[in-house]
Design brief:
alpha+beta, two-stranded antiparallel ribbon, globular, 2 strands, 11% strand
Length: 70
Amino acid sequence: MINWEKDLDINDVKEIRTRSTVYFGCGAVKKIEDIAKLYASRGINKVIVMSGKNAYKSSGAWAHIEKALK
């Protein structure tokens, strides 16, 4: 069993670069404002945010994401 507070590096962010860039990992939510600004500067105003069924709300991540995307 994983002790999330001890065993998970919340600053670990992965990137997958294809035609689009994918950010994943617990620390990715900290980059959302920078990501939103970058896309907005390129004229991109639609994004897809993927999450587990309830994780986005139970983790508190949605508050950061919603603020950044507005």
